[in-house]
Specification:
This protein is mainly α and 219 residues long. The chain is built from seven helices and no strands. The chain starts with a helix and ends in an 8-residue tail after the last helix.
Length: 219
């Protein structure tokens, strides 16, 4: 096998591992929101526990990226492919952290006797879940247009976050007994809003991978 062929196989393996990591993050957000909707502390515990595997995968991808750069000294788009995998793995790891924080909020809420469900938060989560999938598809197919379209969902997430903020603020002003519960739910919504920002970072990375140009899609 030629040196180039070995390098191509290494890049392919790196991409496959990144996609496996992304699939786990997709599962995490689905389970996290199920835990929230069902007020299921046991499921929230599993979400927290699963984060260790995602952390391990991110470090492994980071190590492999560094070795590829050191040993192959790639240039131009090859270098961008490696740096894209590295940056996306970091955003995926931080997205998983956001979900873990949501799961921890679910545990606190259930421990305090449960809470009134909100329809807006699962809607935010569904959009975030789609952003992860579209972002990874855009990365695999190096589809700049899909990446830009995906990033536009972040505006919907931001708008929904403002709705949650207004609704829960009004609830707290109306009934002080709801302050603790409303605060936990506000944190949940805030973590989803940040999740959307990290997904948008993936879109920016895809744009850089394809074009070599840096574009701020988080405006």
């Amino acid at each position: 096998m030629t040196t180039r062929s070995v390098f191509d196989v290494s890049l392919k393996n790196l991409q496959q591992d990144l996609l496996r990591m992304g699939a786990l993050v997709e599962e995490q957000i689905e389970k996290g929101i199920q835990a929230l909707s069902r007020q299921d502390a046991a499921l929230a515990d599993r979400v927290v526990a699963n984060d260790d595997e995602i952390d391990r995968m991110q470090l492994e991808i980071e190590d492999r990226c560094m070795k590829l750069i050191a040993m192959q000294q790639p240039m131009a788009k090859d270098l961008r492919r490696i740096s894209a995998a590295w940056r996306i793995s970091i955003d995926l790891e931080r997205m998983s952290d956001n979900i873990v924080d949501i799961a921890k909020a679910v545990r606190r809420l259930t421990r305090e006797g449960g809470f009134k469900p909100m329809a807006i938060i699962p809607k935010m989560a569904q959009i975030c879940q789609r952003m992860v999938k579209d972002g990874l598809d855009a990365y695999v197919y190096e589809d700049q247009e899909l990446a830009i379209r995906m990033s536009e969902f972040d505006h919907q997430v931001d708008a929904l976050y403002k709705e949650v903020l207004q609704e829960l603020t009004a609830t707290m002003l109306k009934d002080q007994h709801q302050i603790t519960q409303s605060t936990h739910l506000l944190f949940v919504a805030r973590h989803l809003e940040r999740f959307g920002d990290h997904a948008t970072n993936i879109a920016e990375t895809v744009v850089y991978l394809v074009s070599g140009e840096r574009k701020d899609l988080n405006e």
